[in-house]
Sequence to fold (444 residues):
Amino acid sequence: MCCSYRLVLPLTICLACGSVGNPGHLPDASPAPDAATRGTVHVTVLDPSGTGAPAVGASVVFLDPDGTLVKRAATDTGGKADADLLPGGSVTSVALQTSAYQIQSVLAVQPGDDLILGVKTPDTMAIGNVTVSFPAYTQVTPASYTVGGPCGTGSSFPPPAGGPPPASVTLSFNNTCKLDTMEIVVQANDGNGNPIAVIGKTGLPFVVNGTATVTGTYQAPRTFTGSYTNVNANITSLGMTRTVPDGFGLSASPPIAAPPAATQVMTVAGVIGSSALIDTQLAIASRARQIVRQSISGSAASYGLDLSTTLLPWLGTPTFDAASGKLLVPTDPTGTTTAAPDLVRLAATYRRTDPVSGAQTSFTWTVFSPVAADLVLPRLPPEVGSVMPTSTDTVTITGFSLESDAVAGYDAVRHDLNAAFFQLTSSRPPGTTLRAAISPINLR
Fold:
């Protein structure tokens, strides 16, 4: 897990290095005040359409840590721009698509950074199907079967003419989730959708529009118990979801505890696999939320989580203060740790209507920071357009604070923070443990 990010402040060092053997030699000239620490930051801006193509002619604003404008540049044909910054500066891109502005800011930038600003939308187009065959469960006649694979689930029900449900299901696949070698899990269900028997197989090859065959013997469903300790009284709801083998697989959830006990036990039955993803969902009265996502053995029968030593500080409702130009980000450590996140993402949206034409312009400003705290919104020059939020704008801000044991701090993901954010919050996140604090949605 990462350590808390420490902002490196620029230092000016004056070295009087005259030669002892030549007392008449004048001391070497001191370097320029920031020459020892200022360095080039490279930026690539992606087109707001989400295709991943470079944004040509987008504005990029480079600011030093004190907010001083260093450079405003338009991106070239490769979507690129650069400038020399002091450690801890910021970079902001402004790209316009029709009547929608996409604004992206990265704070705590370091010399030598090569940043990507913008999002490439994942390719979710279907690439084909796989027909999964499995043994029929014969001890009783199931009401249905549910099958889980790398891209989701499918079900088999009795045909209209009656009889048992078919022992095969066709699953669809796309490039964002398919795996070359698959694990398939199958659950035979009773009339209420509860599991009565389970079976699964690993190492199945993926073949577009091919087949996969699950073999073996059905087992009793895994009875799984989650035990939560040190549940603070401010938590109003606690939910648990067990998914096998990952977030795309077969899920089972017990009823939500609202409110939970100080020590809360939750039990659910489901399939057995090579791994399981346990999602713990929590909320407090303000509607602030937290998620703890952990990967464990798919055959484990129990799970324990001490919330007081796990949770990140709660994120309150972020607001924009026009007088100070700040995004105000309240936090609440009640019943949590003081752990620092790997990254904080704040997304502010607002829109304006032209009083004459009635035309509407929308703005989405995403800010990435290493800390969950109040921050001054980068002050953009008027040349990039009238994009700064004002006191008359209705600003909606959503905040995410993320920490993962697969990330070695903000420095490790600053190169492409959008990609890191979407990977960490995906159904197949890297690492073993992800912690996320999510703010309530605020309409100002």
User: Anything to note?
Assistant: The mean pLDDT is 91. The longest strand covers residues 195-205.
